[in-house]
Amino acid sequence: MNFELIIKEAYQKINNLDDKGETASYIPELAQVDSGNFGVHISTINQLDFGVGNYNDKFSIQSIAKVLSLSLAYAIVGDKIWDRVGVEPSGTAFNSLIQLEADKGIPRNPFLNAGAIVISDILLSNLESPKEDFLEFVRSISNNKTLEYSNRIAESEKTTGYRNIALCNFIKSFGSVENEPSDIIDFYFDLCSLEMSCKELSELFLYLANNGQGISNKKSILSESQSKRINALMQTCGFYDESGEFAFKVGLPGKSGVGGGIIAIHPDQYAIAVWSPKLNKKGNSYKGMKFLEEFTTKTKLSIF
Ligand code: GLU
Question: Which of 100, 114, 146, 293 is most buried, judging by how many CB atoms fall within 10 Å of its CB?
Fold first, then answer.
């Protein structure tokens, strides 16, 4: 399979499209990003590394970090994690309060903000220095010591994130978290502020294409079954209220973030990262979705 040629051609085709998306502006710092950026990078199990466009530029990975926090919490507490969050798609907005009321404080899945807040609580209760230990975990997966949080992005969200603060307090009112809401939400905003390039993101996420085993450090991050389950959740819940559409058009497990990044996994083959900041109406990168659809159509490789 000539991934390089297919990626180059798909990139050119999608780059020429009129971008109908809008940059996320509810986190003020995200609105400052140059919306013309467009990068793609693939990392394969067979050690191919290839990128086009702005694939070396760092961006705010936002909700993509929820996969990493889920991985660490799952590795620490095992199947008990499913007593605290569900595994069903929601069909409602990622930051819905109504959903949480209906579900009596047990978030429907770990990729909703409410779910990620509960996962943050689990990490706070189980890590000695949560912010440092989580960063160390992320760095260790792909042996990349340069990965960092962005204080600028985290502060921007801390000063404007009223809805997430409300969600966190609401969950506390149900007794579904142990720690103080202000500590939980600070940690949640920190983990959402992680910055990576498409190259770093695809190298990092290769463990989910490799049955939970790190490639560069040969470390076991998750068991085979845990890795399969996280891929299943990405497939069913990874794209806000457009997860069905993503399965339908692209056919890979993945996760997107409001910074305009998307990571997609082909188990046993590759991880591919795309970044283009303008989002479609459902909150997923407009060009990112189009690119991945073109890519899996041309490669004829999807999990279906
Ligand atoms: N930090 C963002 C929020 O909580 C993440 C949203 C996202 O990327 O889905 O609103």
Answer: 114
**Domain 3-299, CATH number (from 1.20.1250.20, 3.40.50.720, 3.40.710.10, 1.10.10.10):** 3.40.710.10
Mean pLDDT of the chain: 95
In whole angstroms, give the CA distance from residue 246 to residue 57. 25
pLDDT of 3 = 95
Give the separation between CA 230 and CA 241, rounded to whole angstroms: 18
**Cβ–Cβ < 8 Å for 215, 45:** yes
| Residue 257 buriedness (CB in 10 A; 0-12 / 13-18 / 19+) | buried
- Ligand 1 centre and the CA of 21: distance in Å? 17
pLDDT value of residue 73:
98
Kindly report the backbone phi and psi dihedral angles of residue 273, in degrees, each rounded to the nearest multiple of 5, phi listed first.
Answer: -115, 140
pLDDT in tens, 160-170: 999 999 999 99
> How many Å lie between the centroid of ligand 1 and the Cα of residue 2?
35
| Phi-psi label, residue 240: left if phi above 0, alpha if psi -120 to 50, beta otherwise | left
The residues lining ligand 1, judged by C-beta closer than 6 Å to any ligand atom, are 62-63, 94-95, 113, 157, 164, 192, 257-258
Ligand 1 atom with least separation from CA of 94:
9
Q: Confidence class of residue 300 from pLDDT cuts 50, 70 and 90?
A: very high
